[in-house]
Amino acid sequence: MKIGILVNEGPYQHQASDSAYMFAKAAIAKGHEIFRVFFYHDGVNNASRLTAPPTDDRNVVNRWSQLAQDHNIDMVVCIAAAQRRGMMDDNEAKRQGKDASNIAPAFRISGLGQLVEAGIQCDRLVTFGD
Amino acid sequence: MLHIVNKSPSDRNSVDTCLGHVKPGSAVLFIEDAVYAATKGTVAEAKVKAVMPGVAVYVLEPDLNARGMQGRVLDGVKLVDYGGFVDLVTEHSTCQSWL
Predict the structure, then answer these.
(1) Predicted ipTM?
(2) Per the CB 3.0–4.6 Å rule, which of A33, A104, B17, B40 could disulfide with A49?
(3) Which residues pair with residue B28 across a beta bridge?
(4) How many CB atoms lie within 10 A of CB B63?
(5) How many independent structural domains does chain B possess?
(6) Record: contact B86-A26, CB cut-off 8 A
C-alpha cells in the first residue's frame, strides 16, 4: 500500500517525530511504500543538518536521512514553515542573502502542494503531531 | 475508520472528543501519552469501557511499556506493536489523528 506521513512537530520536544519514524520503519518492513514524508510547522526542524545531539542519544535528523536514502523516500519540508524557522537549502540561502544553508541530506524544500499531492496519491495519509 | 489519539486524558480532552465521535465498527488506537486512557483508574476508564462493545480499542505497547503502565491495561483493550499500528492503518479506509 502507498502511505504518506505528515510530521507537524520538531525533534526532541515531542514524541511525534519518533512515532512517525517508527511507523515508517514498520510500514517498510511490512512491504508498504512510503510515498512521501511531509514536514510541516515545527516539523521542519527535523531537517536541520546542524543538530548535534549527545552521542548516546538517538539522532533524529540523521535517522530520517538514512531511512530516506535506504528506501528512496521523498522527504519534503514546507517552504513557508522553513523560511520562518531558518531552514534553508543552498538556493534558498542565496535567494534570501543568508550566509549558510542547513538542510540535511535527503530532504528537499517545496510547497504545500506536495502535501496535497500525497493526500491524493496515497492510499493512506497518517498525521503525527502535538 | 481508525481514530488515533496521542494525548493523556489528564492533559487534554482529545480522548473525550474522540470517544464522543466514534461510531460502531470503528477502531481507536491510543499512542504516546494517550496510552494512559487504556489503563485502569483514570478519568477516561468509564468512557473507554462504554464504547468498547462496538468499537475495537487498541494501545501501542512500546509506548505503554515506556511509561511503566504494562499490567494496568483495561480488560478488552488489545496491545499492538508498530507493525500492528501499520496493519490498523491499512485495514481501515481512513484514519484520523486527534492531536
Answers:
(1) 0.97
(2) A104
(3) B3, B57
(4) 24
(5) 1
(6) yes
